[in-house]
Amino acid sequence: MSRTDPAVTVSRGLPVFMGRMLAGVPLLGWLLGFLVAVLIEQAVGEPLAQLVSLPKMPVLFGILTVSKVIAAIINTVFKDAAFDPAILIHVPAAIAYLTVVYLAPIVVVARISANIANRAAGAMNRWNLLLPAIVHLGLMYVVLHIWAGMSDYRLITLKITLIAVLLTLSLNIINGYMGEFSCSHPGFMAVGAYMSSLFTVGLFVDDRVLGNALMACSLDFLSFPLALIFGGICASAAALLVAIPSFKTRGDYLAIISLAFLFIIKSLFENLQALGGSRGIAGQPDWATLPVIFIVVGLGIWSINNFVTSTFGKALNAVRDDELAAEAMTVNTRKAKMTAFLVGAFWAGVAGGLLAHVLRYINPAMFGIQKLAEVLAMVYFGGLNSVYGSIVGAVSIGLLGEALRPLEILKWIIIPLLLILVMIYRPTGLVAFRDFDLREAMGPKTEPGQRK
Question: Which residue segment(s) compose the domain that 327 sits in?
Answer without folding.
Answer: 152-440
